[in-house]
Amino acid sequence: MTALALAALLAGCAVGPDYVRPTMELPQAYKEDGPWKVAAPGQVDGNQRWWEAYGDPILNDLIVQANAANQNIQQAAAQYRQAQAASQIARASLWPTVGAQAGAARAQTNTNGTQRLADSYTVGLNASWEADIWGRIRRGAEAGDANAQASAASLAAARLSIQATLAQDYLQLRVTDLQKDLYRRTVEAYTRSLQLTTHQYEAGTALRSDVAQAETQLRSAQAQLIDLDATRNQLEHAIAMLIGRAPAAFSLAPLQAAAASDSAMDANAQRLQASLPQIPTGLPSELLERRPDIANAERLAAAANANIGVARAAYFPTLTLSASGGYNSLAFGQLFDTPSRVWSLGAALAETIFDGGARSARNDQAVAAYDAAVAQYKQTVLGGLQEVEDNLSTLRVLDRESEVQAQAVKAAQLAERLAMSQYQAGTVTYLSVVTTQATSLTNQRTAVTLLGRQLVASVALVKATGGGWHAGQAEPQPPLAAR
């Protein structure tokens, strides 16, 4: 009974506060989560890889490459393994330390001028164990476990960040392809306008200034087309880095050119717009379980709480139990005989009497670290809520704006056709043609830019809502490419 009581005492007593997840008031629903819906067949949920909702096999393949070879992910994976090892080290202190030793020695003695040689042989085992009466070791193990869980969440956050950045860069590259295709068609149209104006000038029905205006407009469009190459190249280089490859060893073929269309967008743009997925945001309270950065901050708060117990346990004495046993003999042949047996049992109690206030300062330090971790956790939650609200608002506004912009494109295209017909009929000057063509190009490029912003914001919303990740989700084994 005494042994059972002692075991219960050793197992049940742990100084320091038991951890309770910090609470904070959360809204019942998102402010910006209105009735709007993006018209799309895709759906992002926690049961699928979210990037597949965009329906692009090239993007899917790039994400797979990034998961395997991105160096930031490799770094986070290595840090996760490091945290796991640290947790195992902390837990190992809960168990006794057992050692073995064996030795042989020869010594010479000199007694009254008589020299003698003596041999000695030893072999044995020893063990020591710190009785964790006050829970110092257990609190340290709790902190180690929480830090490992925080590192797992940090790895998930790094992976999500890389995936989202890669998806945004890829989608922006495809939008740049759309803009290049738009300017390519514009250059072709402006070339025809210059040829028409030149023929009319040669026939005496147009002014030399009309030819100059047509050529100016053409050269400006050609310059813009060339300038888009720089944007595309930079995005291509960024994608190469994200998938762990040198820019010189990577390239993406452009979209196949689409035919001109009277609608606001060509076929390629329409396909991209149709890829915009529906993104269920859930409830604000669910965000605590869906964002890995929030889980990371919460686990760090748990580790900081456990460290308070470690600091407070330093106020109490430590009890170390030790035991050893083995054999000791002057003759090797008699080493394992019964008379050669030796053993010892012992206990040591140690307590710091004076440390100049160091223990009190360490306790204050641990409490302050916990308060800081709680504040960081709450700030991370608030930041996550803001990101969701921001991207919900952005997507809703862009959805309405793109509808109005599509109408503006159609009106501008009609005005461009009418102005060209009137110029050919001689009822307006070429300045009217130039003005309407510039307006049409500006509106078409604005429509494509809005599509790009919608795509980027949709990825940002996926990231803001956690990308399908859930707290407690089993962490996959990290890739071995960088080991």
TrEMBL record:
Pfam families: OEP (PF02321). Belongs to the outer membrane factor (OMF) (TC 1.B.17) family. The keyword Lipoprotein applies. It is a lipid-anchor. GO terms for molecular function: efflux transmembrane transporter activity. This is RND transporter. Keywords: Coiled coil, Lipoprotein, Membrane, Palmitate, Transmembrane, Transmembrane beta strand. It is found in: Cell membrane. Residues 59-86, 211-238 form a coiled coil. It comes from the Bacteria. GO terms for cellular component: plasma membrane. InterPro entries: MdtP/NodT-like, OMP_efflux.
